[in-house]
Each structure stands twice: as C-alpha cells, then as structure tokens.
Amino acid sequence: MSASAPAPQAGLIVAVTALASAVAFLDGTIVNVALPAMSDELGGGLVTQQWTVDAYLLTLSSLILFAGSVSDAFGRLLVLRIGLIGFGIASLGVGLAPEPVTLIIARAVQGAAGAFLVPSSLALITSLLQGTAQSRAIGQWTAWTTGASLFGPLLGGIFVDTLSWRFAFLVNILPIAATFVLLTRLRAADHRAPDARIDVLSAVLCTIGLGGIVFALIEQPNLGWTNPMIWLPLVGGVVLFTAFLLRQRTTRFPILPLEIFRVRNFWTGNLSTFFVYAALSLNGFVVGVYLQQGAGLSATLAGLASLPATVLLIALSSVVGSLAGRFGARLFMTAGPLLMAAGALLLLTVREDFDYWTQVLPSLVVFGLGLALTVSPLTATILGAIGGTRSGIASATNNAVARIAGLVVIAVLAAIVGGSLDLEGFHRAAIVTAALLAVGGVIAFLGIRTERSAETS
Question: Can you tell me the distance from the alpha carbon of 207 to that of 236, in angstroms, rounded to the nearest whole number?
Fold first, then answer.
C-alpha cells in the first residue's frame, strides 16, 4: 500500500487524473454534433455514423476492466502515460482521416487508449489519497469528467462551425500535453501490486465477443437476420462473451470478480446504470444529429442546446449529494430517471415548424433537473457498496456498464428510429429514451437499499 500523498499534492493529483480522463469522456460526446459534418465530407451515411460512435465505445467498454488489471500489474502512472500517448496518436488519426475506414479504425484506437486512462486515473486517486481527501478527490473527478461529457457537444459545435470537425479531435493534443507537464510535478512513486497478473485470454474473449454482437446489431437492418454475415458473428459473440463470464469464475486473476455482484446495491445500481446510460447515449446522439439535419440548426447552436442540462448538473450536484447522504440515494435514483423520462417525452412537442424555445428548451430543463438528481447519488451508491480496496474495480465496472449500454443502444439505432432520423424517427427515439429511463428508475426503487456496508447483499 502506497503512502498518502502530501496535502499540497492532493490538488495536483485531482488535476492530473481529471484532465487525463476528461479527454476520453469529452470525445465520447463531442462526436455527436460532429457526425453530420463528418458524414458530409467523408460519406458513408448512417452506418458510418453509427460505427464512428460504436468503434470508440466498443474498445473502451470491452478493455476498461482489462486495463484495470494492467494498471495494477505495471503501475498506474506508467499506464496513464501509455494511455495518453495512445490517445494523442489516435486523435491525430481521427483528425487527419481521409475516408471512413481510417476514421473508424482511429476511433477504435482512441477508445482502447481511453480505456487505459479511466481506471488508472481512479486507481491513482485511491492509492495516493485516503480518508476525506480521497472522497473529495473522487467527487471532483466525477464532476469534471461528467462536465466534460456534457460540454463536448458545445465544443464540437464551435469547431465544426468556425474551423472544421477535424479540429474537435486534433485539439486533444493540448490537454494531453498539459497532463504530461503536470505529471512531471507529481512527487509520487508508482504503485505496483506484487502478485498482480494479466489475464490476456479474458480480455480477448470479452473484446471479440462484444465485437461480434455489436457488428451483428449494426448490420442486421442492412443484411437481415438470416444472412451468415449476421448470425455467425452474433452466435460467435454470444458464445465468446459467455466463455469470458465463465472464465471469471475459475481464473485466479479475474478481470471482473463476479462475487462483487452479490452486493445488492452494487448489482442493482449497475442494472439501473445500464438503462439510464443507454437512454443518455440515445438522447445525446439523436438530439445532436436531429437539431442539425432535421431542424436546420448550426453545429454550435446544436451544441448550445445541451447547455441548460450542463448548468443544472454542475449547479445542483453538490447539493443533491448532500441531500442523498441525508435521506438515502434510493429516492433520488428513482425520482431522477423518472423526471428525465418526463423531459424526454416533452420532445414529442417538436414539430416541422421548429421552435427551440417552446419545443426543446422545456425538455432540456426538466431533463437536466432529473440528471442532477441521478448522477451523484448513483456514483456514490455504487462506489460505497463495495468500498475499500475494491473501489477501483467498482468504478471500472460501472464505467464499463455505462459504455456498453451506450454501445448497444447506438448499435440498434436504425431499429429504434425506423431506419431514418426524420421527425417521426426523432419522436420514436424520445419514447424509447423515456421508457429506458423509467425502467432505470423502477429498478432503483425496487433494488436500492440504505445499507452502507459492503458486506450487506
């Protein structure tokens, strides 16, 4: 166990970890408003747009747990540096991509590098800080990374309208360089668990299994379920992912220790996370694209459209966190998603004669209020359910669940919107978003309990 970092270094640790992780979260949402411009320049239509999002989410989701074990084996600072270098190189690949295939490959590499940034950042916090300093740092990390996710559409819109969509990715070099500068000022020895091992087979099973399933979901509307190009990857993916789960029960060094799912608040919190974050990904994708292609807004205005939700989240998160600690997270994890569901249904007021102020803004305000009620209690409940030396695993697992949820819902986007993101498809997506959020809220109501002990299941 490494010693606690000196007090003056606590702020630096937060800055390093938040900045390193923020680029991964930022790129996860910045792409939504850039998709129309990318499609116009490179071609490829809806399938390319889906794969631009899913290639990133696929590698990020499937490798994040493996990256946690690599971080334990080789040291958090070393893995963080490798992730930053990989993300910077991949960002250059995205920004300079001449055609869709290169773009999608570079996005996949970005996601892989991002997977190494997130768990190593949180592990660095938990290994160098303790007690209230650690709790405060995790809270600040969550606020900054969530803020980066919500700020992404606005930043992307500004680049698309004033320069090019390419600069939305090339700009990643700046925060990556800043993080390396801050790392030189961090006086901390790297921590490596002496008995840690890397289960490469589990990582391969997880990655290829998820890849086969998602490929089948994306291409099914084009080829049909009876096409061997669909059912073979689907069946193979299910078999390999099942083998991954079975291996976690027998291997000495599991990437995903299945026993943590025996903790009631942990597994119900993650189940709620799956539905809530599937809805968030669907809503972010559909609103970002439709406001440009359907309503005719510029990329900047489409990005500004999400600003009310961002402001409400930042303004209310600390207050909600305190109230959840006083009254219990269950109330907030139930009311928040249900309020977001109501906000999603307000998007049904959008018509051909589009008006942002009366048709979209009320939805975003209600949605933002629900989001503020949800995020902080959800994170605190899941980390608190496990706690101790496994808080990093708990966080990595929850991040993986959230990214997989986004990956799956974007993979079936064509089925949700009916093949085209016109006004009817936009309304269909709003209804599905509301349904997913309602399910997430009901799961939290039925499953979350007020126990704080990790031993309670």
Answer: 12
